[in-house]
Amino acid sequence: MDALCLFDDSSRRIVAVNASWSRLFGYTALDALGMQVDALASSPEEFLRRLELGAARELQYRARGEFKKSNGVSFSAGFTLTAHAQGANVVVALVVEDPAGMVVDARAAARTAIEEEVASDTGVPSHLKAAMRDRMARCARQQAALLHLASVDDHDFAELSKKLLRTDAETLDVARVSYWTLDKTGRAIECQALYDREKVAFESGLTLTAADYPKYFDALETGALIAAHDALGDPRTAEFGPGYLRPLGIGAMLDVPVFLRGDLVGIVCHEHFGGSRGWTMDEQQFAMSVGQFFSLALSARHREEAARVARRQQVMLAEANDVLDRKARADDGWLSGQTLGRYRLGRLLGRGGMGEVYRAIRVDDRVEVAVKVLRKSRVADTAEVERFFREAELMRAVGTKHVAKVFETGRFDGGTPFIAMEVLEGHDLAWHLRRSPELPLDQVLQLVEHAAKALGEVHAAGVVHRDLKPANLFLVDALPRAWKVVDFGVSQPEGAMPVEGSDELAGTPQYMAPEHVAGQAVDRRADIYSLATIAYRSLAGRPPFMGDLPAVLAAVLTESPPPLSELARDLHPDLDLVFAVALAKSPDDRFSEAPSFSLALRDAAAGRLSPSLRAMGEALLGTFDGRMSLLETRVP
Fold first, then answer.
1. Facing residues of 96 across strands?
2. Among positive and negative, which fits the CA dihedral 293, 295, 298, 303?
3. For a tag site, which of 3, 5, 102, 485 has the least CB within 10 Å?
4. Active-site residue 121, yes or no?
């Protein structure tokens, strides 16, 4: 169980986040022999069991117990334990009721004669009553702030950090609060976010090293709280005086540790402008509670990152196995080393469902080309030969640099059909994704823009590619670098029905549109769906749907993919809306033109999505569960 512990020794409230911290401040629960125990450990077994199992969102337990104060005073008091589930964590509140006849001084330093006077029958001095009221009001603000922080969404760590720092600064009334992370050596810290109350703004970027501030880092390594009431006079922070404290007018500092799995990974630094300041016990406890919130958020982030790595490895393993399978089949082609017509064929570049592609030399002018030949087993099939030459005609008709140029088509002396085209130097998208499972946003936007331009020309010619996937998008090395759409081997006229009797699924299931998987006629919107799945895969590090073939086919037809924002949190949330449209189950809900998808993707990434597209995306995200799937609509 993840937990926090804030104790307020005037109202005797502990808002727990880590029960073991209850021994650091305030009251400690005692067993029957007067030995210190964890307050949670002393609660009933049923409460603990249900808490650990997460069987209930809310739990409460009331009882009476023995407690010991940090100054050694023991007392008996009633208490209430309340557990509240918050995401993957549990926030536990321990409320200790006021023991009869015991009043605690408002100032941690006044523990002698004044405390005796307060506890005596003579009453409470008026000046002390005022101080206690101020203390209780301050603690009430701290408790309200903690309850607010416990409800803050930790979906975006950067935004969560800002909310924590802002709340921390306003609650403790300090000029600046910042969050710093340690490097791997533990000898340097870097400011990730600094909230300045006067500027009402956030800053970051400053780095401090142990070489410049050795005493501070020695104190930091202990993992203990650094409460410098007089920052210039405290030996732990005095080193900052000449270049930092004096120029900024900082009089006091309060630095609390942030841990991840027991290791010190950062600090939350509080800076008070002006003279020295006595950090009271409740203020120190509140600050440590904020540090614990950072620890909880980092822990959740660490778990999510581990899950993302596992997903990436699963995807990369599947894709690597696919590459190995193709490599195992792609030895020298049956025409390697032969001179056919004007071309001397060299090594095999690739092999697809319809043909083989060779690197070749045009003998008469020594120009390098790529020659695609129809597979030997299909040469006798008239329909396959016509389909092969239709691919060449389409590529010739498309006037864009994002489709490979065709130089010549024909038949070699033996009757084998061939297409001679420009040879592409570079690598396909599948190769790039094997080396970097997630691509930067700007690269994906460029990829989609170039592919959309190619598809716009292809669709204008009345043809659907039908097999868009990472292996069929190629990034050329020559400058200016451009993406090209390749392999139109299974393309068909728009609206054409699948070939009857075909024993192969024309396309790659993870990137196929639902209507394509369902065996229905497809149009340009199926290509747009496929392009969207490629963009999703490139940004998220995994395809929209994963699993074995039957599971993927079923998911494409009936399930909604995880929102991109759950897998790639640094991207603008409006991208979820664009993908909701592009990956809609019904073609009628999708973009009708590939360039429109590309433009919407770029607008969403910049936070300027049009109101109409926003409304459409929100409607699709909100109504998907109520829609009938294509699988259901096909049932008579």
1. 79
2. negative
3. 102
4. no
> 339-421 and 433-633: same fold?
no
Q: In angstroms, rounded to a whole number, what is the distance separating the alpha carbons of residues 260 and 255?
A: 17
Q: Could you state, in order of their start, the residue ranges of all structural domains in the chain?
A: 1-140, 152-329, 339-421, 433-633
pLDDT in tens, 183-239: 888 889 999 989 998 887 777 778 889 888 999 998 888 878 888 889 999 999 999
Q: Answer yes or no: pTM beyond 0.85.
A: no
Residue with tokens 């020659």: 371
DSSP per residue, 87-140: TTEEEEEEEEPPPTT----SSTT--SHHHHHHHSTT---HHHHHHHHHHHHHHH
**CA nearest 258: which of 304, 209, 193, 306?**
193
Catalytic residue among 8, 467, 487, 523: 467
Q: State which amino acid sits at residue 34.
A: G
* Separation in Å, CA 489 to CA 372, 404, 511: 11, 13, 16
Determine the pLDDT at residue 418: 92
**CATH 3.30.450.40 holds for 152-329:** yes
Q: Give residue-wise pLDDT tens across range 475-526.
A: 998 878 899 998 887 777 666 655 544 434 556 788 999 999 888 888 999 9
CA distance 539 to 212: 41
Closest CA to 443 of 538, 577, 579: 538
Report the CATH architecture of 339-421. Answer: 2-Layer Sandwich (3.30)
Which CATH number applies to 433-633?
1.10.510.10
Q: At how many degrees (to 10) do helices 524-540 and 594-605 cross?
A: 30
φ, ψ of residue 464 to 5 degrees: the values are -115, 130
Query: Position 47: which residue type?
Result: F
Judge contact between 451 and 444, C-beta under 8 A: no
